[in-house]
Amino acid sequence: MTNDRRLEPVHILLIEDNLGDVELTKEALSDSKILNELTVAADGRQALEVLKAGILSHHMPDLILLDLNLPGIDGRQVLAEIKSNPALKRIPVVVLTSSQAESDIAASYEMHANCFITKPIDFAQFLKVVRSIEDFWFSIVRLPKAEVI
Q1: What is the spatial distance between Cα 3 and Cα 10, in angstroms, rounded to a whole number?
Q2: DSSP secondary structure string for all residues of 113-125
Q3: Residue 91, Cβ neighbours under 10 Å: how many?
Q4: Domains: count for the chain
Q5: How far is the C-alpha of 139 from the C-alpha of 141, rounded, in Å?
Q6: Domain that holds residue 29
Q7: DSSP state of 111
Q8: Which of 24, 40, 43, 47 to pair with 72, CA 20 to 30 A apart?
Q9: What is the CATH number of the domain that holds 83?
Q10: Is the pLDDT at 3 greater than 70, yes or no?
Q11: Residue 29 resides in a domain
Q12: Measured distance CA(65)–CA(57) in Å, rounded
């Protein structure tokens, strides 16, 4: 592995309101060669609460998978909050959404999303995408060590 991972699991925060997509993501990660811990937030408000608790407990996610279309505080607002907070802005955020809108793609990158992926509709492709995300971010990319601010 290129990334010098610890023996402890990587912490992934999934911000997703679609229960079917949550279950597919869990399934894809359960077969992973990388030990992981998945936390799920069903909406933007819950996601921000999880992140605030993470700051206080020094248990930050290593990667955030973010849907844009969330009830209440939407994913765009969550992304803006994450990337404007010095304690959170270094966490990679993968926008994983059903949107194909050029405006969403452009806005996500303007707000410093690390990548934008449109969810495949096909079950097998969805599993492949989630596994590819995990493999890329934890086997290929080198991430900075978590910083306590």
Answers
A1: 12
A2: -SEEEEPPSSHHH
A3: 22
A4: 1
A5: 6
A6: 10-137
A7: T
A8: 24
A9: 3.40.50.2300
A10: no
A11: yes
A12: 21
pLDDT in tens, 89-129: 999 999 999 999 999 999 999 999 999 999 998 989 999 99
> 148 in a domain, yes or no?
no
**Residue 146 forms part of a structural domain:** no
DSSP 45-110: HHHHHHHHHHHHHT---SEEEE-S--SSS-HHHHHHHHHH-TTTTTS-EEEEES---HHHHHHHHH
121 token code pair: 């509709």
The pTM of the full predicted model, rounded to 2 decimals, is: 0.90
pLDDT per residue over 57-97, tens digit each?
A: 988 999 999 999 999 999 999 999 999 999 999 999 999 99
Stretch 30-48: mean pLDDT: 92
State the average pLDDT for the chain.
90
Please check whether residue 41 is in contact with residue 50, taking contact to mean a CB–CB distance below 8 angstroms: yes
> How much is the pLDDT for 114?
96
Residues in the chain, overall count: 149
